[in-house]
């Protein structure tokens, strides 16, 4: 059996252990599986890499063995770290890379390892952001109230509550940190970093698409909240609550599909935008000549 196939067999085996421990928690299973799929995509790149030297193999083996005990290292700091979950698997994969491939191959390990560690840390990052940026919530509520008023919906806000002036009287709706869509923004950023890292395009293009993606995700979250408040206003809090349960998943999934489809067609879009810009410049130049 060749070195590459052996690498993938060892990379796959821990997924059985993760599934055994977390069969009732799909998200805990999905993240490592997606990380493994990213590794599969890289099979052609890995096939041309040379093997590791003996000192590096020893270091890799120590990481592989140590990955099974990451749980015990995290327990003193976090109340309920997952036993053999995505973080363990990320350390395990790092060790496998050191065992099977030359050191420079670690670049190929970045995407799956970053994905698994970052996705497992979204709750912690969200709590940290809440602690330091909760002052932002009143400004966000003010934006939502301005949009609702612009749509003809009487709305005010105080503290973390939005009050809708419905036909049946004032309807007060509490607003929590999680309502901001922080988790969806973090998930989008993780996917964006992985995608842009794998793309061999210039830094300017990456920055432009990154800014567009973040702004689009912010806009999708605003649309989500406005739709929920409109449902609350016209149909009552029970309907708004039902909409709140699934509308975020629907809109976010659609946005991901649209954004990454457009990103895959970035060269075509760039050419079309460039052609339109040239036409506009020609029209403006022609008008200036006629005016002169």
3D structure, described in words:
By secondary structure, the chain is mostly helical. The protein has two domains: 3-120, no CATH class; 134-291, no CATH class. 75% of the residues lie in helices and 5% in strands. The chain has a three-stranded antiparallel β-sheet, with helices on one face. β1 and β2 (161-166) form a beta hairpin. α1 runs antiparallel to α2 (26-41), α2 (26-41) packs antiparallel against α7 (106-120) and α11 packs antiparallel against α12 (237-264). It is flat.
Main attributes of the structure:
single chain; 292 residues; mainly alpha; 2 domains; 3-stranded antiparallel sheet; 13 helices; 75% helix
Structural class determined from secondary elements: mainly alpha
Q: Numbering strands along the chain, what is their spatial order in the largest sheet?
A: 1-2-3
- Average pLDDT: 85
How many domains make up the coordinates? Answer: 2
What percentage of amino acids are in beta strands? 5-15%
Report the principal-axis shape. flat
The largest pleated sheet is described as: 3 strands, antiparallel
Helix content: over 70%
Reading the helices and strands in chain order gives HHHHHHHHHEEEHHHH
- In whole angstroms, the N-to-C terminal distance is 78 Å
Extract low-pLDDT stretches. none
Count of DSSP-assigned helices:
13
The overall strand count is 3
